Amino acid sequence: MSVDSLVVELLSAMTTAGSLFIIAAGLTLVFGAMRIANIAHGSFYMYGAFLVSSIVSSFGGTAFWFSLAVAPMIVAAIGIVVEVTVLRRVYDKDHLTQLLATYALFLILADLGLRFWGAQSRAVPAPAILSGSVRLGVASFPIYDLFVVGAAIAVGASLWALLRFTLLGWRILAAVEDAEMLAAKGTNVRLLYTTVFALGAFLAGFGGAVIAPLQSIDTGLDASIIVAAFIVVVIGGLGSVAGAAVGAVIVGLFEALGILWTPSWAPAYIYLAMIVVLQLRPSGLFGAAETT
Amino acid sequence: MVKHLVRTGLAAVSAAMLTGSGWVVPAYGADTVAVALSTTLSGSIAEVGRTGLRGIRMALDRINAQGGLLGKQVRLVSADDGAFPANGVSNVRHMILADKAVAIFGPATSAVGTAVETVAGQYRLPVFFHMANDIQITTSNFTKYAFELVPNTVMEPRAIAYYFAENVAPKAGGKKIQIATITPNYSYGRDTVEVFLKTLKELKVNFEVVAQEFPQLGATDYTSYISALLAAHPNYVFAAIFGGDLITFTKQAQGFNFFKQTKIVGFYDQVPLRVLGQDSPDGAIGWNRAPFWAESGPGFKEFLADYRAKFHDAPSAWAITGYSAAQVWAYGVRKAGSFDADKVVGALSGATVPTIRGEITLRACDHQAEVPEFIGRVSAQIDPQYGQPIYSQTVAIAASKTMLTCAQAKSRQP
Predict the structure, then answer these.
(1) I need a labelling partner for B70 at 20 to 30 A (CA). Which of A10, A190, B79, B161 fits?
(2) Owning domain of residue A213
(3) Within a domain: residue A237?
(4) What residues in A contact B82, CB-CB < 8 Å?
């Protein structure tokens, strides 16, 4: 294999990692702060992609940039409604009840999506400035894929800044550590949960929006992403954004190497990565062991 | 917590598998007879299942408008299987026991197909497969109640190999053709690529396989697969991925200048061509089980006009095969003069049935329809008549060239 091909393969792995990270970051925040395994996170991702396709088909290709901001905001608004009307009622219930609630939401949102957008597959063209490819020696690499990696880095940096420098961020981190203590200290944990859930939904919607030009947008997107996103979160450690970033890179690299070396077994590599990490660190790479 | 999550995940997966189905039961009177369709109406292949449903419903509507069958109106009971065999089986059982269905129309995917075939055999009801095409349906899993109406996983790849050997290989100038393959990681994908390569060998095509990839069905990210394929420098890539997966693959491959570096042989039927539009890979070799632009059976033009007026879209292959499946069943009922399963099966076995796809003969030995596979060159031009790309040349590869012989099929039957 030539050096050019290897570079392209590694960049491809980073594209995979980038799109996974944007989605996993929201999932891990919600899980860490609220202890909810949100299956409906995949639905938010699908809604992000569908909203972009609706906006672009109504207002033309240049509306893509606009949709990149608006679609996640609409998804975040849906997230707020879901949190206030449904999830608030199950915080004090056991994990299975919570899981059934988010799984029910997943089914309801899938049916609503089907009703609203129909079963037809859709495609969104990439904006002209991001179509085409760059040359790397004899190989080519898509500009849009570089944009996906850039968007993932921007999301990572923004989340880092949020968690590091803002009061909201500190509260989220505190909720990951010990929500009860935070409430006892006078923080409005209900409002914090709503905010975190909206942020998680926003990130899922943003992930769907960013990936829209790279995919056939259809009603199966919700289920297709959620398993991989959970694996990234488990590898990284629940609640850790840095863990999600590392987890996404590990999954991307494992998959790419699997495809190169033993194509027949490639889909198994992502699970292999999870098994290896959990054997070495049962709480994930950046996760703390459960204390309560 | 991790343990919790793993447990949680397992629970979610089992919950997904137990998901009930949406029942659509229209009002009906005493002079009706029910037929059942359990197929995939949700998820990434929802469009495939839903257009098939449209085709079957249109055919039954027409039969009902003309006075019904043996004096009875036919009502269609449909349900979603979510591509899970367990759902397909429970749907069909419910339709047989509660709705008293007298015939079953097949599901979308092969795994559900063989499961439903087994149920049809147990309850002795005719089942018509217009999408699922696993070779097992007519061989190792065969029951006399089953009829396969599309080219199976032996016929389809053989047809593509014949086309390749006749039209592509001679232009290689005696040089060894480098072939890479990408097919989904389940029986359809594995069988199709195996038969394709085996047939090329039998046809003495001078080739070597430089890479073989097996992504999951419904994969959303093909970038690593695409770069691995390109790194192997194939002259041709055989891509038996379909529907939304093929659209995603094509869109992601374009950024890599994939179609300038290699040529693709792929399952480009109506849906991907419509969605990709001008981004369809110009000059690619495509295959299709029932292309609306090449079908010309009696009544096809009328069907095409009706379909376009109703749905503002061209019919997918599945709408066309679905329509013909309902026609086949109705023919059997009329010929038998009865809805009785054994009489209908007897009337259809070995029969030649007029359909919108032309006359279809249902071979007596394995109930495989003798239907051609259509292969052609993808054009990225939007066809002005249909508002979407079609093939520039379409060739029909006859079933007689590609079917297992009756002796071969029989030897694999139980």
Answers:
(1) B79
(2) 3-222
(3) no
(4) none
pLDDT score recorded for residue B22: 44
> What integer best gives the mean pLDDT of chain B?
91
- Is there a contact between A124 and A144 (Cβ–Cβ < 8 Å)? no
C-alpha distance from residue B388 to each of A272, B320, B383, B384, B399 (Å): 43, 17, 5, 8, 28
Residues 6+ apart with CB under 8 A from B62: none
CA distance B163 to B160: 5
Q: Report residue B17's pLDDT band, with 50, 70 and 90 as the boundaries.
A: very low
Q: Note whether B220 contacts A: Cβ–Cβ < 8 A.
A: yes
Domains and CATH numbers, chain B: 9-151+296-371 (3.40.50.2300), 155-288+372-402 (3.40.50.2300)
A123:B247 CB<8 A: yes
In a domain, A255, yes or no: no
SS3 B295: coil
Phi-psi region of A94 (alpha: psi -120 to 50; beta: other; left: phi over 0): beta
The C-alpha of A54 sits at a distance from chain B's nearest C-alpha, in angstroms, of: 14
Residue B337 has pLDDT above 50, yes or no: yes
Q: Rounded to an integer, what distance in angstroms lies between the CA atom of residue B119 and that of residue B136?
A: 15
Backbone region of residue A13 per phi and psi (left: phi > 0; alpha: psi in -120 to 50; beta: other values): alpha
ipTM of model: 0.87
Average pLDDT of span A43-56: 97
Please tell me the total count of domains within chain A: 1
Distance (Å, whole) CA B181 – CA B178 = 10
Using CB atoms, which residue from B255, B271, B279 is nearest to A144? B255
CA–CA dist B390, B376 (Å, integer): 9
Amino acid B202: pLDDT:
96
Residue that has been written with the tokens 């349906």 in this structure: B137
Would the CB atoms of A216 and B213 count as touching at under 8 Å? no
Q: Out of B42, B216, B245, whose CB is closest to A114?
A: B42
At B12, which helix (H) or strand (E)? helix B2-18
Q: What's the CA gap between A132 and B255, in Å, rounded?
A: 6
Q: Tell me if B223 and A145 make a contact (CB, 8 A cut-off).
A: yes
Q: Which residues have C-beta within 8 Å of that of residue B254, sequence separation ≥ 6?
A: A142, B279
- Chosen from A93, A105, A224, A269 to mutate, greatest number of chain B CBs within 10 A: A224
All residues of chain A having their beta carbon less than 8 Å from the beta carbon of residue B313 are 120
